[in-house]
Structure formats: C-alpha cells, structure tokens
Amino acid sequence: MSSPRFPNIRVLSAELEGWGFFLCTQKDVRHGRGGELFISVSLQDRTGLVRARIFNEAARLREEFDSGDFVKVQGRTELFNSRLQLVIENIRRVNPDQDRGQGFREEDCVLSAPRPVEEMWKELDELILHVRDPFVRELLQRITAKHVEKLRIWPAALTVHHAYRSGFLEHILSVARSALTLGAAYGANQDLLTAGALLHDIGKLEELEYDRSTSYTREGNLVGHVTLGVMMARATMAAIPDFPDVLRAQIEHLIVSHHGHKEFGAPVEPMTIEAMILSAADDLDAKINQVKQVLAEDAEGEFTAYHSRLGRVLWRG
Amino acid sequence: MSSPRFPNIRVLSAELEGWGFFLCTQKDVRHGRGGELFISVSLQDRTGLVRARIFNEAARLREEFDSGDFVKVQGRTELFNSRLQLVIENIRRVNPDQDRGQGFREEDCVLSAPRPVEEMWKELDELILHVRDPFVRELLQRITAKHVEKLRIWPAALTVHHAYRSGFLEHILSVARSALTLGAAYGANQDLLTAGALLHDIGKLEELEYDRSTSYTREGNLVGHVTLGVMMARATMAAIPDFPDVLRAQIEHLIVSHHGHKEFGAPVEPMTIEAMILSAADDLDAKINQVKQVLAEDAEGEFTAYHSRLGRVLWRG
Amino acid sequence: MSSPRFPNIRVLSAELEGWGFFLCTQKDVRHGRGGELFISVSLQDRTGLVRARIFNEAARLREEFDSGDFVKVQGRTELFNSRLQLVIENIRRVNPDQDRGQGFREEDCVLSAPRPVEEMWKELDELILHVRDPFVRELLQRITAKHVEKLRIWPAALTVHHAYRSGFLEHILSVARSALTLGAAYGANQDLLTAGALLHDIGKLEELEYDRSTSYTREGNLVGHVTLGVMMARATMAAIPDFPDVLRAQIEHLIVSHHGHKEFGAPVEPMTIEAMILSAADDLDAKINQVKQVLAEDAEGEFTAYHSRLGRVLWRG
Amino acid sequence: MSSPRFPNIRVLSAELEGWGFFLCTQKDVRHGRGGELFISVSLQDRTGLVRARIFNEAARLREEFDSGDFVKVQGRTELFNSRLQLVIENIRRVNPDQDRGQGFREEDCVLSAPRPVEEMWKELDELILHVRDPFVRELLQRITAKHVEKLRIWPAALTVHHAYRSGFLEHILSVARSALTLGAAYGANQDLLTAGALLHDIGKLEELEYDRSTSYTREGNLVGHVTLGVMMARATMAAIPDFPDVLRAQIEHLIVSHHGHKEFGAPVEPMTIEAMILSAADDLDAKINQVKQVLAEDAEGEFTAYHSRLGRVLWRG
Amino acid sequence: MSSPRFPNIRVLSAELEGWGFFLCTQKDVRHGRGGELFISVSLQDRTGLVRARIFNEAARLREEFDSGDFVKVQGRTELFNSRLQLVIENIRRVNPDQDRGQGFREEDCVLSAPRPVEEMWKELDELILHVRDPFVRELLQRITAKHVEKLRIWPAALTVHHAYRSGFLEHILSVARSALTLGAAYGANQDLLTAGALLHDIGKLEELEYDRSTSYTREGNLVGHVTLGVMMARATMAAIPDFPDVLRAQIEHLIVSHHGHKEFGAPVEPMTIEAMILSAADDLDAKINQVKQVLAEDAEGEFTAYHSRLGRVLWRG
Amino acid sequence: MSSPRFPNIRVLSAELEGWGFFLCTQKDVRHGRGGELFISVSLQDRTGLVRARIFNEAARLREEFDSGDFVKVQGRTELFNSRLQLVIENIRRVNPDQDRGQGFREEDCVLSAPRPVEEMWKELDELILHVRDPFVRELLQRITAKHVEKLRIWPAALTVHHAYRSGFLEHILSVARSALTLGAAYGANQDLLTAGALLHDIGKLEELEYDRSTSYTREGNLVGHVTLGVMMARATMAAIPDFPDVLRAQIEHLIVSHHGHKEFGAPVEPMTIEAMILSAADDLDAKINQVKQVLAEDAEGEFTAYHSRLGRVLWRG
Fold this sequence. Notes:
Chain A is an alpha+beta fold. Helix content of chain A is 41%, strand content 19%.
C-alpha cells in the first residue's frame, strides 16, 4: 500500500488511487448475471458517504469484513452514472492497536457535525448559565447532567437533517441562537426560549438508538419523541422542589407544540409568542441544514437537481 | 304557581304554561332598541337545553338569579323563528332545603348521559375483572380507584360528543364494547383493547374542568389530553412493580395514536391491529353520538338540516 | 427429480433444493449485458408469491411454458438482495392427467383466502337466513343465487386487500360480522347491515375479471364498482314484487356511500347510523387485511419496513 | 291601489311606492323586543328575490296569505343596511280568475331563466337531430320524450347555479354548445359530447323536487344525481334493441365522471377526451352562471364584495 | 361638555362619562323594530376601535357627521353583550381651526403603529447605510426616496396584521431585524436580506389605497402585491447603470417567493437560504403582530377566546 | 449500409434492420457487471424518442459522437422488457454537407409539433388581424414581432405538455381557438381573450432555454414564467402611447391568474369571465395534449397503463 492516503470523502474526486480508513455501513454480496460474485459496499468518514464495489477477489475479501466494521481500504475512484464510486482492490477490518500508528481514529470514520464537540458543549454551558430563572436553570442543568453522553454524540434525526454524530447538539444550539435573537426583538421570555430550544427534541435521546449508525427504538416508533420529551421534562421538573406549576405548563407547551401544526402531528399548536418563535426557529434550522447538505452533495451547476423532500431545485446563488 | 310542572326539555312543546327547576347556564342583560330592558337566558335539565327570555319585570328579576344557579322558573313556551323558546314570567334561585319538597334534585337539572351512573359503573368493574393479564388489570384498577369521582361525572368533551354529565363514562364503555367485539373477530389482544378503551381519553380528566358546566384547564389547553393521558398512564404503571416494558409501550401507543391520523394531531399513527381497532371504535362512537343528538334536536322532517361539523344532512330513516 | 417437494411458499426458506407445482404469473425473456439469455419468472401457490430466475438452458426452457400456465418446477432457493429467489433448473407445463398422480391440484397453485370456501359459503347462507325482513332476505337470496360462481372465487381487489381467490367472500363475511356486532351495540337495523355488508362491493363482480389472475373490465374502469353495484342491486329489487321504496333507497344509500368521504370518490356520504357503521367496518377490514399481509411478508425484526400505502412502519407486537 | 305597478325585481330601486304580483317564498311571524308583532317575508318574480317586512296591521295581514302563495302586495321600497327592502302596507292571496284581468300570470312570479322556454326547446330538438349515430339519437329522443314536463321547467340546482325555473334546460344547452365547439377543435366524438351534455345532470330530474320552490327528494339525498343519472340512462339504453355495449359504457362514463375529480365525489375520473371536455364545459358554465348572478345582485362599485363560495371578489371589468 | 376627556380607546373602560375626538369609520342609520330611529357608529383613535350607538335625537344628529369625518363626541361607555360600547349623547364634525385649541390632532384619531414614525424612519436610513453592496444600496435609496410619503404612513395590510397607519414601515423594519440576526447565524448574504426585508411587500404601496381607511386598488385586486412588487423593483434596477443581472435575479426571487409555499399563491418557492430566512421572518412577524393585537383586544382571562384566523386560543402566559 | 432507412420513430416496430438520422439526446458510457463496456443512448426524430444501446465495438464507437450531436445510425430494433430498443451496430456524427445528399435535414431530427410552422404562423397573424381594439392589436403585433424567432420554435414546457419544437405556438393557437368559441357563447370580450391566449405563457420565452433540448433559465427558475410574462407585457404596453390603464390591468390580470387556483401558485385567481375562460381553455389544452401523447406512446390494449401525473388510466375508446 504505497499509494497515498485518500482525502476526506467530501472532497474526494474521480480517478484517484489510494487507501484510507472508513466505517463500513453496508455490505451486500451479490451475483452478477454472468454468475460472477461481487460486493456492494457503503463507506463513511466524518465528512460524508461514498459508494464502493468489490469486483476482484470478492470470494476472498467477503470474509475480511462486515457491515458495522471500521475498515482499511485500498483502491481507486471512478465515476459511474455520473456519481463517484470507489473500486476496492483490498479491504480488511481495522486492528485498532496496530492501525492507530497509521493515523486511524474512530471519530474520523463516523459522519459528524462540522464543529468540535468541546466547543459546542462550552456554548451549551454558557447558554444555561445565562438563564436567570433559577428553576429553569436547575432544570436544564439536571437534564444535561443526566444525559451528558448522549447529548455529546447523538444525531438530530435518522435521515432528514443533522443526521450525523453530534448533530443533536449542533441543532439545539443553532435553534437557541435563532430563538434568542428573535425573542429579543419581540420582547419574549428568554429563559423560556432557552429551555424550549434545548428541550424541544429531548425525546429524541430516547426515540433514537445511535452507535455509529442510527435507528428508532421501540419507544421511538410507538410513542414518538414529542411525547417522550414531555415526559422526560416533567419527570425532571417533578424532582425539583417547588417547581412552579405555571412554569412547568409553559415548558411542556413549548415541547408539545414545537412541530407547529396539527397536520404535522403536533398535539397542540403554539399558543404563546415563545412557542411560535421556537417552532419557526426549529423549522428554519432543519430546512437550512438540509439545504447545506444538498448543496454540498450536488456539486455541479448553478441549480441543484430537483430535491423531492423539499419539492424544488435549489440555487447555489 | 298553580300551573302544571313542565315535562323534560327533550319533550317540551310550544304553547305550554307551567313551572320547573333548571340550571341557568347563561344570563345576558340587554337593552332593546327602544331602550327597554330584557334578559336572555339559557336553561338546562338532564335531557336538554332551552332558550328563554325575560321581557316583563326584567329590572326586578335580574336580581333574583345568576348564571350557574339552579332556578325555579314559571312561564310559557312559544316558537320563535321555528325554535322553541321559554318566556319567563317569574324566576328565582332554588332554595335547596325548601324546594326539595317540591321535587327539586340537582342531578335532574344537569344535562346527563341517558344511562344511570350506577349501572355504567358496574359495567366498568366487570370489564376490568375480565382482564386476564394481571398487570393490565392492576393498572386499570389503580387508575379507576384514583379517579372515581371524576370518572363518574365527567363529560367526554366540551361540545362535540357526549358533552354532558357522565358522558366520559358512557363513551369509554361504548368504545370498549365495540373494540372488544371487533377484537374478537380479528384475534386481537382483548386485554390491550380493554386498556385502550378505558384509558385512551383519560387525559380528559385533566384537560377539562367540570362543575355543572365544562371548560378547559390550563394544562388542557397547553398540553392536551393525548399527552396528559400518556403521562397519567405511565405514572401509574411506573408505580406497579415489575410492569413489563413492552406492555407499557403497547399501552402508551394505544393512547398516543388514538386520533388515528397525523392530520388530526396524532403524534404517531396506529402501528398495531389493536391500535387500529381502538381508533376506529373511538371515531365511530363519537360520530354516532353526534348523530343521535342531531336527530333528537332536529325533530322534524325526513332529513335534518345541514349539519356543518358533519358536513351533511342526516336521514331519520 | 428425486429431491423433496418444496413446502408452501409462505414458509419457504433459502438454500433448499426441491420441486413443486405452481402457477406462473409472469415470464420475461431477457438478455444480460454479456448477451446471455435468461428468464425472469413469477410463481404462485395458494399461500404466496415467489420470484424465480432461469439462467441455465434458458433457450430450451423458454419453449416449455408460458405466463398463465400451471408448471412443474425443479430448482433451489437462495437470497438475492435479502429477498428469496428460486433458481430454476427445470420447468415444464403441467399435464393435469399425469401430474394429478403426483399431487397436483389447481386450487393449490392459486393464491387463496386462508379459510375453505365451503365453510365461508355456509356462513353466508346462515347470515341470509337470519335476516328477518322478507324483502331483504329475498334480495340477498336472489343476488347470491345469481352470482354463485363469482361469489365463491372472486378476489376483493386487484392489489390492495384480499387480492386472492375467494377474497371477496372472505371480506364481505368479515365486514358483516363486524357491522352486526357494532350494529347490536348501537341499536341499528341489523337486516340493513347484513344487506350492506353483503352488497357494498357487489359491483366488483363486474368491475373485476378474474381467472387465476385479476384485471379490470371495461365497465370496471369506466363506471366503477360503486355505481355498478347500485345498478345490480336496483335491478334485482325491481324484479321483487312490492319491494318497498324506502327500503330500496336505504340499501342503495348503503352501497353508494360506503367509501365514506367525498375525497375518496363517494358520491354521497353516510347519512344514517347503518351507513356509518358499514363504512367503518369496511375500512377497518381492508386495513387489517393489509396489515396481516405485510406482517406475513416482512418476516424479520420487531418493526416492518416502511409501508408506503399505509404510510408507516408496523409493529409485530 | 292607485299607485303604479312595481317594475321587475331585478330593476327595482329604493323609495318607490307601488303594487305587484309575487310568489311568497317565506313567511315568518315574529315579536319585536317591545312585544309588537311583525312579519318577515320573501317575495319573488321571474327576475329576482326581494326581502319584505310587514309592520302595520301585522295581526290582521298574517291571515291573508301563506308561504307558497301567489300574492298581491302594496307598499314602498327602502334601503335597510344597504340592501333593498319592501315595506308592505297591504297583502292578500292572488285570486287567479279575478287578478288575471290586472295582468297576473303565474310564470311572471317565479324566478326563471332569461331565455324563453320555447326557444330553448327548439334548440334542444335541433341538437338531437344533428346526432349522426342512430343509437345515440334514439336514446336522446326517448329520454327527452319521457321527461318533457320536467325538462322544460326544472332548475339545475337548489342554490348554486341556474337555480330557477328552466335553469336545467338553460344549463345543458349551454354545456352542449361549449362542448361541441371544443370537441370540434380537438377532433372529439360530437355525438358523445351531445349525449354527455344533455344527460350528465339527468339524475337531477329525480334528485330535485320542484314546484315553484326547489328541494331534495329522498333519493336525491340518499343516492345523488350522478348515480341516479347513470341508472336512468342505462334503463333507457337497455330498452333500445341492439344498443352497442361499448357505446353504453362510453355514455355511462360521461355521466359518472362529469364532476371531474375524486375530491368532488366523482366515482371515476375522466378517462377520455370527451369526458375531459364535458367536465370542463360543465364546470365553466356553472361558474360563469354564478358570476353573472353575483354581478347582477351586487350592483355597485368596480369590484363586488367577497363571495365566499367562489372565494374571491369579482371584477365588473 | 364639562365632563372629562376620555382616555385612549385601548384603555377605555365601562361606566365612564366624557368627551373625545375620533375618526368615524362607519355610520349606519337604522330603524328599530318599534320604528324608532337609531344610528350605529364606529369610532377610532390611534390606539384602537370602539363601537358606538346614538339612541337620543338620532334624527337631528344624523345630519351632524358622516363616515370618514373626524368628530367630537360626548357620551358614556357601557358593556353590551360583554363588549364595550359608547352611547353617544352628542356628536359633530370637527372644526379643525377651532378644535385644535382643545387638543385635536388628526394623527391622534387614526389607528397607528405604536412607534413614532421619525424613529422608525431613522432606523430605515441606517439599515440602508449599512448595506455594503453599492448596487443594493442605490436600489434601496432610490425606492425609498421615490415612495417617501407612502412608506411613512401606509399600513401593511387591509385587516390581517399591522393594519394601521405606518404599519408597513413597522413591519418591514421588524422583518429586517429578524432576518439580519438569522442571516448572521447562518452566514447568509446580509445585503440581500436587507433588500428582501425592505422590498418584499413593496407592491403593497400600489396594492392598497390608504387615506385614513384602507382599501384595495384596481391593480391590487387584479395583479396583486407580489407581482406589482417585482415590477417596481425591476423598474428601479433597470434605471441603475450596470446593475448586475445575477443580483437582479436574486432580489426578484426574494420578492416573488416570500409567501413561501405554492399553496399560498407563491409563484415560486424559496430556492436560497436568504429566501428561506426572509419568508420565515415575514411569516413570524405577521403572526406575532396578530397575537399582540388579539391579546390587547381580548383583555380578560388566562386564555383568549378562539381566534378563527389563527385557529386556536392564545395564552396570556 | 445497404439496409433500408428506418421509418419515423412513432411508427417504428421491432425486428427491423436499417439506418437513419437522429438527434442524440443522451449518451452514457457504462461497464457491465462482467466488466464489458456498453453505451446507453437516446435518439430522437420529429415524431418521437427511442432508447438505444451499443454493445459491439463500444470502445471505438464512443469516440464517434456525443450527446447533442446529430448522428447517422445503423442497427436493428428489438423489444426489451416490452419496450422498443434500438441495438446500434454503427454510429457517427452527421456531416451536414455530405449527408444532406442522403436526405438529412435538421428539422426532421428534432421532436416537433405535428402542424407545419408556416401554417401555424399564418393562423397567428390572422388572429391578431381580427382584434378590433387598436391597442390590443398593437400590443400583440409588437410582442410577436419582437419574439419571432422564439415564437416559431419554442416548446410550451420542459416535459409536461407540448414539450417539443414549436409546441409553444401550437399551444397558444389551440387555447385561442377554444377561448374564442367559449367567449362567443358567453358574450365575453374577444379581444381580451385573444390577448390572453397569446400572452398567458409569454414568460416561457424567458423561462426556458431551447436549442434542440430544453432547460430552465436562471430567471425561469428564480422568477417563473407567470411573473416574467406580466413584466414582458407591461414593458411592451408602456411603450405604446396612450395605452389605457384599465386595459393594461385587464391583460395583466389574464396573465397573472391563468393558473386558476392559489394552490397551483397563482398569485391571484380569475376575477372576470374572460380570465375564467382562459384558465379553463389552457388547462384543458394541456391535459388533452398529454392524453394524446400517452395514447400515442402506450400503443396496446383498450386501456393505457396507469399514468402517474394524470393519476388514472386512459381509455382508447
């Protein structure tokens, strides 16, 4: 393997030879129509995903790795139907002890938020410190303390937006920033907005299962993150002595109404200025995150291809 | 007051003179265009509502009662714009001690379910006794024990269906009967269906405030009965030792999905046969209750007038 | 062909060798990219469908059978892209006389309702005998007598629900059971409900063409089963002396309104309690039949894959 | 009654005294808030409707007429809340024999299509004579012959469009003219378009009851004009020897699909160019008839008031 | 008129006697059922609207003023059906010269934005000065210079939001503040956001006619403010030498897409992050302005009455 | 190449050998699973599109042509998965000078409207000459004069309807014919209808880019043809001295409202009879053009396959 190491997937181009460390997120062994064996593979690093194929020595290489493994890969890139594809010449499971010497780091192989976690965590701490109402501050401190592990690494969704390591944290911080500036303009209660931004999706920590890849938990499917989130918040508030009833109702309302419209499955619709601001900030942040992903993945031309979830083409400006 | 006592409101006709005991649910003092004072009143007994007016001695009679009072009324009925109206000649607050001798009973003056409460309560008990799963049975016994008072008298809604005393109990029993026979036909889990029928609207005990008349509580407005109901059920299940996780998720799913469709604000949609049966039984029971009310109130002709919530006329058959 | 006979398709697993009798419902002769001939085939027995491929001797075997034939097949099963596939080594048309000795029966090779037809037919007879109104009973007897053949074997739909031999009969009996128990609870007219359940889809006997496989007739496409059904019912009622006008209108209303909502193409919406019950029972039965099919076909995991027509994942419970 | 006769209602203005013959379509006896009796009345002639009130001698005049009577009225017009109102000084039932001498004619007192019936009927005859296909021509001749009476006087709807005497005939002729010119442009089958235009609403002859005023029949409510119309057409076609099956299906399709979209309760949607043209011509004619009525009734200003069924204001141009 | 001057309408309470200057926005002369004349009036000052009635000397007072006049009014306030009403004892047209001595000022009698115009205008100037792109700055300077008069006093809508003097200016500044802070968070082009905020509704200057009261212009009805706005912007840009094509397209896109969704009549949907931010900021500002008005007008209780445009009750918090 | 020349694509059948001139609209070089190179190609002539494949000598032939070239092709036709496919044996770029001798003409190789352009242009001229209002006539003459080139060759849309050379001209003439006959029936302003038909889509001349194939321009995506069209019309009208304001508003209203409903992105809805007629004629013409294409492409059976945009199957009649 004397060829150079591949750059990050987001900047990978065609007609390169090289090697790299990746997370394998899919492995399908197939037979071609002529009967020959080949393997269809998906690889991931912190910046993106790439499709790969094994045509040579597929029978031997199929034993060398499984879906879910970190892998070391050697091969070359090409365009297939206008999309980038990596043709794998060699592949094997990572041996962490040995490969760390060559620069292997788990966190470099998992799709991740662009900002460093430590920096985001510090911003979260400061947001909470700026809360004036002692009950709200206590609530936020208890919830973040209880879920430190998940809060640092959870994605914000399975596929739609911020669907990568630490995407949850990135999303709630971004919503908080937007909601607080809007709230300042409209004279809204900033403590409530901070609570709403940090807690509106808190149920996703129970709705989703995340360990390199993301899936729904049983409760996630059956109960959904909105209801799970209200219950998590209520349980924590119930444990704080003298937590005021009105304040509790306000915070629960922010969570339960944050999808904004009945048609989107919101059990109640926003009835306060704070709930309206939170819902708008959440919706906008999710949309802009999608736009940025689409623009990054669809790299050519003044306009992107038609995006079916957004229902339009996007303009690179 | 030598005239006869009025019959029940549901069978009251025009051109009668008489007296009766009622609950006054609305009292508006107005001035006619000629400046004369008159009072617009709504009266209720266990069978229905009637509009009333005070034209004579309005200045004196306005002091004799308020909205929310039980009242003794003397007057005559007439048709006004094709609707029945009671013209009040005399009215005063009920004096319970004195008027009981004349047959005054509070429960006769409040709009109520047609079936006696005791009979319905016995049916509820038997439904719970037939539950085989000990955890489900325990859950239902605890919840009914905790909310005996409200379960006996609460209405099922503010205005749409079963909007009268003990309407809640009437509705959940009716849904249970339907769901259990449907469940038998489709081989569904009957214990889950009993739990779903009895608990699907349980949040309404916190969503609504009821004391002769019905209103929304703060939590009812801000959080809504679906989410409140899941929290009530979870709190009770959490207190039962060894309550199985899967069972808890099943019961929470029944509550959270019972509105059937995202467009109706259901945070999740039915994912099991039991949840589909429950949602269908609930929807049908609410609709048929409305139909029966419309047919009772709109007493003439083969077809009723156009009913805007149902979006159609109804046929008396 | 000394290998064992395959089990029913519903319980077929990968990596088996064997032989079996099937109905061939699709046959596509193709060329691979290397130019080699292969044949894509769909096979069916009473319990399900399986995809098959012929790679060896395709040029010779293509002459041995056609789409629509009952066939004898020898081969082995395998997984292809996680779905079961049968690789055919040998295939030929069934020779009924000769193959009956080996256990060939036509009815075992056509996708069918799980309950035996005779048992269902007996239930239908009894339902009609229990009708009290002599006109309704006469109507149902005449219609069933006239359409005996189709009523026994027709499917209930092309693809959505009960889309197999005798699915029509299975569906109307199931709707009748549900409607009658619901009707008993709500004091509805049971004779009308029986008529509605048995007749609501009667137009499908003219809408669909069924002979092993299902298609739309010209009238089915152009007029639709709702209108065709009303016409069939009216023609039969017109031939019964003194059939009451009101009764005829009631029965026609049940048929014409059974899709429940204008948005679903119902020319009128249910205006009676019977029509509401029928529409709810029909909708629920169609949904539950779909759910049972999805759960049977999607055999792994606690939750099924996302089902696009139902718009959700399903829970195995 | 020496004052002048009122002009037609459509050109009636305020501040006139006079007398006239009208149809009374509504009569409500009420008490004012001061207890005084007054009568609210609606009057109609062939050109429009006007609201009327009786303040003087209401007790005596209430005995002189009923809703549904042709009446002779004396009074004066005024504006009330910017709308024209007739204050009645004297009113009595028409005595046909005696009043004919003063110019009373029934047909002048019933809201009617602007074109004379004879002229429209002649146009209908010619349309049918121009049909080339003998089966279609026979069908149209039989149906028009059978329903001569209703075809001449029926309205096209209860309230929405062409809701006046002979409105049905006016509407189908107008649809025919549009459909035929469109059909000529697109090379469509003109005989089918003539049949579709004349028959698409034929079920309304059974859906509506008309005798000076319009109401729904039982069958109209329960079955609806689309399905009734298909049955009327089929019954007539069945009686014509050798009527071709395909032709029958085409004509039934035109009727059953003419509402154009499932959302509007069309059991099937247009599948042929003829059905698309018919549906467009029908929709446009209904809309333009509404527009012309709104412009006629809302006589002031460049734009009309907001019209809730059309969902917009209209421009007088 | 020795009674005290009324306070501002927004803080007016029942059971006061006094006098004040107002704009009369509606005057309807009616007859009561007893025949007596009375006048229904709407009055306005810079803080709100109040309903008024004239019962005494209506015949004389009807000559003293017209709708559209500034008036001096003497009377007393009362509650009628729970809403405040002013019973007028005396009323006459304002005589500006004479009444100015008593404190009459036109601008105090017209419903107005709460912030002083001069302060808002200064903010507008600064926003434009902060634009870095010289073409955008030039565009904004030219458009504001051209429309100084209207920009200072126009309302933002006929009824929905900011429907008062200078409401347009208040709205675009508020949208600009929100859009710029959101834009900063998402790295959007701030110059474009400033242009979008100031120009998105510019067509309303031609869509609406405003002179104390607001109405639609002919072009407003027929063409609509979205299209009018694009044309105004394009005309101004066309007059600026070398205005870049791409920049022009960006600005036109911001205007044409600002309603956000096709369903709301947006000819195109936002295709850039800037357009998404602008649309969200505009929607939120309109909603919050409505909420504030509702809360101000519906002054009692924890929750407001149901608000039909917003489709919910609001919480005072 | 001694084989015969292929017939037009619309009438091409399977199992033919031959040669022809085409436009190549797509060229994808791929590798099969066995590694072999093949080329996927789309070919076009004036009557339709056909899919083609190069299996032999792909490595050499890939150099012989590109997407966008006119090509000379030799090969044979076959069915693949029931669709026609051309297997190319030889292919090269057209050499215009040399190939014209063999009958090559550019216009025969580009998908085109069935009517000759000259004939359509003459019809356009006559339509304009029949306009009575001199301003309208002047407007139409100026606009057609300015856009002669595009008006003759532009398609009416990217994919939906009239998506071929001169489809724009074909569409506006067809809409004009329909609108004028409908307008005659309803007494509408024929000059306005002519203007509306010819100008309603005029913005498409700037929305689309067409040079053998069609794409959206930047302005097309960002501003859309409705708004672009109004601006083009206004600019032309502004240059005509004394063009009446009302007339200009009428014409702009026709363009801006022609999509008929807010839900389809129409900024305003039709407010005049002319606008309603135009919108109906436009919608019908687009639909019928689609139907004709579907019927032409889906050549077998009484009914077509399900068409997802139209949401139905179509009947060949």
